[in-house]
Each structure stands twice: as C-alpha cells, then as structure tokens.
Design goal:
The protein is an alpha+beta fold. It has two domains: 228 residues, 3-Layer(aba) Sandwich (Rossmann fold), CATH 3.40.50.300; 156 residues, no CATH class. It contains ten helices and 20 strands. The strands form four sheets. The chain has a six-stranded mixed sheet, sandwiched between helices. The longest helix is centred in the middle third of the chain and has 18 residues.
Length: 395
C-alpha cells in the first residue's frame, strides 16, 4: 500500500498543454477515481504516475519518495489497461505468472500466488484456458488478476470496463469494489463515465482540459459542486441550468418564478445586475399530485413536451417559450465555456415517479424542491457561497 502525491505536475506535448498545475493527494489504501470528458488529461496523469510518460514540471511521490526518474518496473505498481493486453498464446495461468517468473520467484511461490489471485477474481477454473476461449468479462478478470498477483503498492486502472456490455459492467463494478475493500490497496482508476466514478470511488477527482476542478466524495460532488462544469458533469440525467433574474423577491426563470427563501437570499448576496445561474437536478422535481401538501417547495405548471418511460421512472422534457433576449440556458458545461450561449438548444428534464399520471403534450402541475437549488455566478461559473450572514455571526 502507498500514499501518492502529485505536486505541481504538468505535461506538455510540444505547444499543447495536456495537464497543468495538477495537485492531488491520494491516501494510503484509497480508491481514487479520475473522471472527465475525453481528452481532459486523466489518462496522461495515470501514465505519468506509471512512468510511461515523463513529467514536464512538478513531482510525483509514492510513499514519500520522488519517483520522477524511476522506470515503471522500479515503482512497484501494477496497471490494468482497457485492452486487457493478454498474451494470446499463453494460458491464463502463464499470463498471470509472467511478471513473477521474470522476477525469478520460486516455482511453488508463483503457483501459490497465482492460485490465490485467481480465487479472489473467481477464475480458478479458467487457469488452463487461453484468452481466445474467454468472454470479455473473463478476460478482464484475468487482466486484473495479473495485477493482483504481484501484490504491488498501487493499482492503476485505465478504463478497464469500457469494452464490456452494460450488464457486465454493473457486475464488474460491484466486484471491483469488493476486491479493493478486501485488499485495501491504493487504487487509481480512470474513467469518462460519471456513473462509474460515483459508484466506485472513495473520492473522485473531476478533470477538464488538463485542470483539476474538484476533489471530494461522490456525495460532496453531487450536493456541493464547485462550479458549473462539475455540476453538469456529475449526475444522470445532467443538472438543468437556467439563467434567472432576481426580481421582486423571486427568481424569475423561463419556466417559473421561484419565491426566494431566507437561505437563498443569503447566498445571492452580491450578485451583479440581479442575474444568476440556477441549477436544478431532474430528481428535485416531481408530479405535484404525488407530493404531500405539508412538504415545502414550489409548485408550478409546465407543458410536458416528451415523456420517456423507463419502468422505474418517467423522464419528462419540458416545453416553453424561450426568453426574448435568448438568455435562457447555459451552453453545455461538459463541452464548452461556462458563459451563456443563446445559440444552444434548450433542454430541461424532470425525473418523475412511475406512479405519475401526467400525460405527454399536456400541461402538468410540477413540484420543485427549492432546498435542492444550486446557484452559480453567471460570469465566473463558480458556485455562490453558502449563507454569508450565518458565517459572519459570532460563535
């Protein structure tokens, strides 16, 4: 096991900055997820940690020792790739034993280590088979077993589940969690799938365009995203964003006017020109007929343009007239800058209970959990500070 620390790490390929000013501390035994859209630099970070890419700036420490100049084999880490990277002419046993044989371990010790790792991965009955006879899930288990057998200081995993079908990915996510908790070995896992990131990691590091935007537990990222990008990237379906005007004690949005509570007023302190970005998660809305009258919040009417039934939920897409100035919603924070973009198509999704009797193409009464609103500065894209007045009060 090992603590891993990145300090001021940067990587440039010619004039292109793939990673810059990257600082991250990964605790001993922690399951850390690096997540972000394709091209954000997460795999480059993993490859620098593995020693497969040289750093342009900064340093990486493993167990307190700087490893910038160490070769991959001298870092005592094991990497699992997306492509499995198994030797097709070797049996599962020989694939898993390969690194141990190169380390000149005794034959009996190799056999014991391989059999133990195969037992952990549930592939003991496959040891005499070759990769071509295995399913995708079995091959991935072999690839991970090959890493486990070495008993390294840390495991590095680069999107190891991306080649599997949806059902098998869910099964393997649960299996990975069990194995990591059982072995308690420091693990750094790269993925572009935010659902995978939220279900696997002890903590999640969200990257975009070579920068680290936020690090926290899945629940911290979900409930308190630092900026528009993190808010829009974490959560499925994605958070809805509206440009709102603070006016006459209300938040005036294109879909409804939301009365300001004391908590919201405190967070809106200092907003320029009365404008703010309101973030609303689909699950913070519901069919008003299914919500108890005693519960707080805000009810409003909206036209349900399209309904998508999934069995357990209904995803409702709202329809309405956009604002006259075109400033209705932010452009997609997953792909572009956080400024408002009138050219972007508007999307607003509501997650309804399957018990809802609302109908497509009709006006329905919806309920909004105002306690779940997220507020962002329209200029910087940063989350507005929590109740400043409360912080200023003496203890």
């Amino acid at each position: 096991m090992a603590e891993i620390v990145f300090s001021g790490v940067a990587k440039r390929f010619g004039e292109t900055a793939a990673v810059h000013d990257f600082d991250l501390e990964i605790r001993d035994g922690e399951f850390m997820i690096l997540v972000g859209p394709s091209g954000c630099g997460k795999t480059t970070v993993l490859r620098m940690l593995a020693g497969l890419e040289a750093l342009t700036e900064g340093e990486i420490r493993i167990d307190g020792e700087v490893v910038n100049e160490r070769t991959p084999k001298d870092r005592d880490i094991a990497m699992v790739f997306q492509s499995y990277a198994l030797y097709p002419h070797m049996t599962v046993f020989k694939n898993m034993a390969f690194a141990l044989k190169r380390a000149h371990l005794p034959r009996e010790e190799i056999r014991q280590k391989v059999e133990q790792a195969a037992g952990v991965m549930g592939i003991s009955e496959l040891l005499e088979r070759k990769p071509a006879t295995l399913s995708g899930g079995q091959r991935q288990r072999v690839a991970m077993g090959r890493a486990i057998v070495r008993d390294p200081k840390a495991y590095l995993m680069d999107e190891p589940l991306s080649n599997l079908d949806a059902k098998l990915r869910i099964q393997m996510r649960a299996e990975l969690t069990r194995i990591q908790r059982r072995l308690h070995t420091t693990t750094v896992y790269v993925t572009h799938d935010q659902v995978e990131a939220m279900t696997l990691g002890d903590r999640v590091a969200v990257m975009r365009a070579g920068l680290l935007h936020q690090v926290g537990t899945p629940q911290e990222l979900y409930n308190h995203p630092r900026n528009l990008f993190v808010a829009g990237f974490i959560g499925a379906p994605a958070m809805n964003f509206l440009v709102a005007e603070v006016e006459d004690g209300n938040l005036r949005t294109p879909i409804t006017e939301i009365p300001l509570t004391d908590a919201l007023r405190a967070r809106l302190d200092g907003v320029d020109q009365g404008k703010v970005i309101v973030g609303i998660r689909p699950e913070d809305l519901e069919d008003a007929a299914l919500v108890q009258e005693s519960r707080g919040g805000h009810a409003f009417d909206a036209v349900l343009d399209v309904l998508e039934e999934t069995g357990s939920d209904i995803f409702a897409h709202l329809a309405y007239e956009p604002a006259h100035d075109g400033e209705t919603i932010l452009s997609n924070p997953n792909e572009s800058a956080p400024e408002a973009d009138p050219a972007e198509a508007f999307e607003f999704v509501v997650r309804l209970s399957a018990a809802s009797e609302l109908r497509e193409g009709q006006t329905g009464r919806l309920w909004l959990n105002t306690e779940g609103l997220h507020l962002f500065d329209p200029k910087t894209g940063d989350r507005l500070a929590e109740a400043k007045a409360a912080e200023a009060q003496p203890a």
